[in-house]
Structures are given as C-alpha cells and as structure tokens.
Automatic annotation (TrEMBL):
Residues 24-56 are annotated as: Disordered. It comes from Paenibacillus wynnii. One of its GO terms (biological process) is sporulation resulting in formation of a cellular spore. It holds the Pfam family Spore_YhcN_YlaJ. This is Sporulation protein. Keywords: Signal.
Amino acid sequence: MRKPMCLLLVLLLLTSCGIVNKETSPSPQNQQSANNNNGDSDIRQLSNDDAAPENNRDIATKDHLEQLAIRVPGVNGAHCVVMGNTAIVGIDVDGNLPRSRVGIIKYSVAEALRKDPAGMNALVTSDMDLSNRLAEMSRHVGQGHPVSGFTAEMADIIGRIIPQLPEDTKPQGEQ
C-alpha cells in the first residue's frame, strides 16, 4: 500500500512540474527590464511582439500616476509600481505633518486617481517604509534586475496597506 502511494505522489509531482504558462510574468515590466540589460551579462530574454506595447503602456501608466500624485499639494514625491490592472502609489509627505493632514493628502491623491481612467484600480499609501519599498522595486525593475518574488513582495505590500481606494472617494451625492 505504501509503494503505490509513493509512486502516485511522485507521478503527481512530476506532472505538476511540467505545467507552466511561459507567457505570463509577475510583472509586465519584467520583459522590458530584461531587454534593457546594460551588457553586464550574456543572458537575454526574448520578448513577444505583443508584449512590447503592453510594457510601454504600463511604464506610461506608472509615470502618469506618479505625476498625478505629485501635483497634489503637500506631496513631495511619489513612487508607483504597476502590476496588471492594479497600481500601488506610495507618496512622500513632510514627516512633521499631523496624521490628520497626511490623511487628507492621501485622500486627495486617491480622489485625483479616481478621476483618471488609469488610476481607478490604484492603491495609495503614505507609509514611508512601503513607499521606500515601492521605490526600490521600481528601481530594480528599471535596471533590469531579476524580480524574484515580485508577486510575493506585492502581496505583502498590498496586505500591509489599509487601502485608500479611488473608488472610495465618490462624492456623497453619487452613492
């Protein structure tokens, strides 16, 4: 009884290892960042012709959302990471501001993102640690470093955020 069970377990393990969808990536930015390799290594990733427009669109979306956040008064800087149709925007504000003022600024950024079609699924955080992690992730992706554990890192960041979703900023009359 034990040998057939072990054999079945090994067969299941081997068959599950062969199932891989090679077209998906934890981040649409991965494919472009691998192509922007600065020549330090001989490893090159071949990209699909269909992926290039999507990568450019995600980079443009990232830059656009950062600019929207920076335009809000009180925001000193913004960092954004786009993953699929979800974006996380970390904002830098003055550390001496009271929490209530930081909340107002965060709400204003979420409201600005809600009004923009690209920002409807964006999460906003003013946590300095999370904002630094987002900046670091964005920098690594831009430099072409492998993003090992990208989805795990994103899940951890999203889990730590008490999200200020743009959808939550609807004026009282629209509800």
